[in-house]
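ok here's the first one, seq then struct tokens
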Amino acid sequence: MRLRVIQKILGLLLSTFSLALVPPLLLAHWFDDGATQAFFIAIAVIFSAGLILWWPVRKIEEEIKLRDGFIIVVMFWVVLGAIGSIPFMLVDELNMSLPDAIFESLSGLTTTGATVIVGIDHLPPSILFYRQLLQWLGGMGIIVLAVAILPILGVGGMQLYRAETPGPMKDAKLTPRITETAKALWYIYLGLTLACALAYFLSGMGPFDAITHSFSTVAIGGFSTHDSSLGYFDNPLIEAVAVFFMFLAGINFSLHFLAWRNRNAKYYIFDSEFKLYATVTVIVCLLCGIGLSLTLYQGDWIQAFRVGIFQAVSIGTTTGFTTTSFQSWPGFLPVLLIFSSFIGACAGSTGGGIKVIRVLLLYKQGRREIQRLVHPSAIITIKMGGRPVSGRVVDAVWGFFVTYIAVFALLLLSVMAAGLDQITAFSAVAACFNNLGPGLGEVSSHYGALPSNAKMILGFAMVLGRLEIFTLLVLLTPAFWRA
């Protein structure tokens, strides 16, 4: 383990992140909204902390190993979640405690979208922009951005990329050089953001709302500049834009890259994960639309499907935007939506959840075991896209799933011990662990009323979900430190 190179990279990343606070600072000064001093202090503290870490080891030139990458990624998310809370604590209008500020910061960076703030409509514009920006940076991953723009990472950047990117097959690169891969992903991410902002603006949003909501839409974050989320606008065209870009952002960005580079949509059509992702989305949309038309909307099919499709895509992709109180829907529909977030979006996207490709592999593995009962001597290979999947990947998926269930159960028991009722506890853990945001019960609108210890547990769940469990849990194993 190379402690000095870890210190150097962490210092560089913190110093780089401090630059992200410059736009909110300029907005605070422009609007004179009372948050200028808060952002100035935050920039000074974060940049100074990064400089203090970097300066003593600035001349160190060592390659990053795999273990170093895991430590850097975990430390950066934890430290950044804590230090990103500074503006929230310093703005008088928010009057936030340390646990609340850290919760809000972690929720933004992990693209969870759970909030402890009530009265979002009345917040200073700079704070609103900052919340959305946190989600945008966390969406593709600040570490992946750093790999793209910091040449100091060199060949060791692959270790950070592997530790940061989601999905069971992390070794695949779109280009021969990892820095070019990271840049390609960010170009697509930026392009989708610009297109989304323009579409929102043309659909009736003001420039500020269009830009800020494009951040949280493409990041699949769910933060909004209004308490009513996108329901504030009550505009079918805006909702259609949101559905389109939420669905796009839930697709593996590798497919976007391949389709764009080769100018061919076949990469979507023939991709097994995409087909299941689209199928599950359509099924949940139909169930919500039909269920609402038969109950809540009493035969108003247009309104039922308008609301049902929006919420199905928003919750299914783990974005978390709302246009209505889906928590009060009749029957099984609210629970159906929460369960759809467990599947989540595709691997290699900005979404959360278990990921569609893992669900698909679990299904194929289950089907293979049934076939083996009928044909015990048969050699049956699991294939994806016509190619066999290695046993190591299948084992990794099963290991992830079992660990996911076990960790979920422990988190659920922990928040229940903190005083939450069963419905609130289950939905809160699901919403934070899957990086979704809105839940049921006491967390249907915000998390502000929860006890501080529950918020800290849920904040831990957000980081676990964002880093897909193993990246963080591996640091807790004795074998990691002995290697």
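and now the second one, same deal
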Amino acid sequence: MQHKPLAGIRILEIGGYISLPFATSMLCALGAEVVKVEKPVHGEDFRRHQNDGSPYFRQYNTGKRSLSVDLKRPEGIAVIKALVPKFDVVLENLRPGKLAAMGLGPEDCKALRPDLIYGSVTGFGSGGPLADRPAYDTIGHAFGGLYSLFSDEGHPQLAGGLSADLVTGLVTATGVLAALVGRLRTGAGPQLETSIMEAVSTLTADGISQLFELGADPTRRSRHPQAQNFCVCTASGEYLAVHLSSSQKFWQALCVAMEREDLLTDPRFAEYRPREANYTELAEIVADEFAKQSVQHWDRVLTARDVPFAPVLTMSGYLAHEQVRWLDLVEPQADALAVLRPPWRFDGERPDRKGVAPRVGSDSRAVCAEVCTAEQIADLVAAGIVFPDDPA
């Protein structure tokens, strides 16, 4: 039987795109019931007018329920207010103050349920000179220093992926879990706040330490001499990554694997500090050696010598790798979309993400039925305030 530690917890999500939905997707997989509040007809913008067909929307919303309601009308606000006491957590990622202006701010909602956990995810925080600016993943990368840290000096460039949004989701989920534990102890539901800018700080801890140690802003290459890592091409065209860190054991093992024991007594490389000072020369030597043999050769000899290394995988290569399969990290959908499971196991088992992403309003009638009569729901649907998946 699967261990779902959040079973019985109910979360009302008011927001969209990635940072908040990724957080609630993890909480949903841990057993929480997540009801997603969306605008009528087309739902949240990240559906991209594909309803439940967008692979991006499905990645971050599988397993949730959808309540489609017009929050621009007082009757829609009234529905949400009636529902709030039935939820443990309300989470939103709109602009600061927007929900409060609708009468759904933290004070309004906590007045309806005092032990409610109310969480807000913004771009820059609820105050300060940047509070009202819009923010997406790219903005978090730029303001958070990641573009300079991940680029060569003087040549900042866009990064692949959505690291800023995704880490914000993980930070948000962590905050909710901490708030739930705190409520068990005190009985009070705290107001939780985080932002893309705050969340990105968790990825800059090493860069800030480098700034202190180096006395200059670090860039993509700054850590390589310290980490003594290499990304090299083999004779068969595949790339491998090697990371030695400061361990003398791994340096010695690499030299033996390369059949370059002469480097062990070379004063430029014999110890960690000289290797750090002469890293550029060492990187060229390592690259030359790896170019002489196939990836199969290096896989064999590096494994035999216990050298920390890994193939440089593509996304398809990652999904196909036997270790990923063993970890059971992927929930395959009917059309083969790989939906990721949570990065935790409980009693040896990883929580699944069974179910599908909801269609817009697929649960509108059922959720409204918790606080409305059938006649009231029919009136709300007829007035266009509540949108069910079966409007007819």
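notes on #2: The radius of gyration is 25 Å. The chain has a mean pLDDT of 96.
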